[in-house]
Structures are given as structure tokens and as C-alpha cells.
Amino acid sequence: MFPEISTGDMVLMTPIYSQASAKRGDLVVIDDTLSQNKSFFKSVVNTLTGFFTFQLLRPFDLQSEDAYSIRRIVGLPGDTLYMENFVLHIKTKDSSHFLTEFELAQQNYDIEVKDLPEHWDSSLPFSGAYPETVLKEGEYFVLCDNRIITDDSRLWGAVEGDKKIYGKIILKYWPFKEFKSY
């Protein structure tokens, strides 16, 4: 999530997060382990052990560093969106025209974009463009702030909030000089 969050930064996340309160610009944790079907008992044990161990132990989840990723919500249910030059353009369900993600976001953030190689064909995938898409009810479009990294909705498609959004980042506490609440 560079430049907002770098490797080694420490953040606090709350799993008590309702998609009804999701806002454009929220930093969320995407959980690939939630695609496993778990019984109610296993879910309760996971939640409690995760809480008391600061999410270091969740016995019924796949234990992988790649199981979780932090992404920014940029598209909400009902939005029509497309990407051009790594910037998302969004038409909300009650609007008649497109605005950039920055005009609609409720908080300021920066994106990281590096130049593509000199003879790169812009028609290739992940070249800073994404076709027009309409998000269904319960779907969210999430992106990494470093737009060269494509491990986000450009690759996966829209994410189902109730199945893939595990929690919201509420605080960055390390390094202390970059302390920030979200």
C-alpha cells in the first residue's frame, strides 16, 4: 500500500466493520482465507484467539503471509467505473457524469505510479487502463495505492464485501513519527 503504508509499518485493524459504513477511501484488509467454509464453532474460536493474540494466531485459517492484503476502497455498490492513466473514474449510482476517485474520496491520499517501459503497448493488461464496469449490490472495487502492483480488483474483479473484507485499518502507530488515525 505504499506510499500510505510501507513494509515494516504497524497498523491497528478492527474486524468489527460493517459494509454499510464503508466509505470511499477506507483502508481495508482483504482476507483470502475467508473463502474457506468454516463452522460457527471454528469461526468463534478464530475470532477469539485472533483477538487475544493480536491476530497472530487464528487456528482454523490458512497460515500464510499472503492471506491478507491492505487495499483502499475506491468503488462502492452501484458505481460505474473505468480506469485511465492509473486513475479511476467513477459515476455514482445517483450521478450522470464521471468524476475521478480523488474528487469523490472523503479523505486525501496519494497514488504511486511509475512510467511504463518505453515501448510498452498500452493495450496490454495492467497498463493503467480498466474497462467500464458496474458494481453490483454488495460489491466493492479495491485498489493498491501503488498502481503498478496489480494484486487488486483489476486482477480479481470486484470483491464481495461480506466475504472478502475482513476489517478496516483504524490506526497507523509505527513508525511513531507517522502516527495517523483513519
Automatic annotation (TrEMBL):
InterPro entries recorded: LexA/Signal_pep-like_sf, Pept_S26A_signal_pept_1, Peptidase_S26
Main subcellular location of this protein, as a coarse class: membrane
Keywords: Hydrolase, Protease
MF GO annotations: serine-type endopeptidase activity; signal peptidase activity
Gene Ontology BP terms: signal peptide processing
Known catalytic reactions: Cleavage of hydrophobic, N-terminal signal or leader sequences from secreted and periplasmic proteins
Listed transmembrane segments: none
This protein's record includes keyword Hydrolase: yes
Pfam short name (any one): Peptidase_S26
EC number: 3.4.21.89
SUPFAM superfamilies membership: LexA/Signal peptidase (SSF51306)
Peptidase S26 domain location: 1-174
Subcellular location per the Swiss-Prot or TrEMBL entry: Membrane
Enzyme class at the top of the EC tree: hydrolase
Protein name per the record: Signal peptidase I
Lineage, broadest ranks: Bacteria, Pseudomonadati, Spirochaetota, Spirochaetia, Spirochaetales
